[in-house]
């Protein structure tokens, strides 16, 4: 995520003036407070680690976190993305880089909500320069980190060997063998 943020910051004329705006998917407050869901703490830890990495690389931009995609009459995690965007505009923030921190792929909440609805609201609220970090998707670093996490989480799992042939004509066991070997 730090790599993607750095790349997108360079697209602004004054990258050091850009506020990094983390937008995470919201959950009902009752999930966190009543059911003990660690999501809010995990989002805060994730952002702290991302910002720590950026600072280690020499990027010291201000940042904030808000939650999007709430529905229904119940209380959701705050602050809400739409309200924060309006407040940032009122406070004179001119350049904003939206980071879909809890989304690993592009979908309606990134492509419609962030890219269209929130961008329009931000511009109407006085923010002049808008950018967005792409979701992690298929970035090679993310895929490699994900593979490492799987291997670390399952140290005793052995690859299953089979001679089944897939529709592409490759043996089904080949991927597991190559995956474990680091191919």
From TrEMBL:
Compartment(s) of residence: Plastid, Chloroplast
UniProt entry tagged with the keyword Lyase: yes
Keyword Plastid: yes
InterPro entries: Ferrochelatase, Ferrochelatase_AS, Ferrochelatase_C
Molecular function terms from GO: ferrochelatase activity
Pfam families: Ferrochelatase (PF00762)
EC id: 4.98.1.1
Main location per the UniProt record: plastid
Keywords, alphabetical: Chloroplast, Heme biosynthesis, Iron, Lyase, Plastid, Porphyrin biosynthesis
Catalytic activity: heme b + 2 H(+) = protoporphyrin IX + Fe(2+)
GO biological process: one example: heme biosynthetic process
CC per GO annotation: chloroplast; mitochondrion
SUPFAM superfamilies: Chelatase (SSF53800)
Enzyme class, spelled out: lyase
Entries under PANTHER family matching the protein: FERROCHELATASE, FERROCHELATASE-1, CHLOROPLASTIC_MITOCHONDRIAL
Described function: Catalyzes the ferrous insertion into protoporphyrin IX.
Family: Belongs to the ferrochelatase family.
Protein name: Ferrochelatase
Biological source species: Papaver somniferum
The organism's taxonomic lineage, starting at the top: Eukaryota, Viridiplantae, Streptophyta, Embryophyta, Tracheophyta
């Amino acid at each position: 995520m730090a790599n993607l943020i750095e790349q997108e910051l360079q697209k602004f004329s004054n990258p050091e003036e850009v506020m990094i705006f983390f937008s995470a998917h919201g959950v009902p407050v009752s999930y966190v407070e009543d059911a003990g869901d660690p999501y809010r703490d995990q989002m805060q830890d994730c952002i702290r680690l991302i910002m720590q990495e950026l600072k280690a690389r020499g990027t010291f931009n201000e940042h904030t976190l808000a939650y999007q995609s709430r529905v229904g009459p119940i209380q959701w995690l705050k602050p809400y993305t739409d309200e924060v965007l309006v407040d940032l505009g009122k406070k004179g923030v001119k350049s904003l880089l939206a980071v879909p921190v809890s989304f690993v792929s592009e979908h309606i909440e990134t492509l419609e909500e962030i890219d269209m609805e929130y961008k329009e609201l931000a511009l109407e609220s006085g923010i002049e320069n808008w950018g967005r970090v792409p979701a992690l998707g298929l970035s090679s670093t993310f895929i490699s980190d994900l593979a490492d996490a799987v291997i670390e989480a399952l140290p005793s799992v052995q690859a299953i060997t089979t001679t089944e042939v897939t529709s592409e004509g490759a043996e089904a066991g080949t991927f597991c063998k190559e995956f474990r070997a680091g191919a």
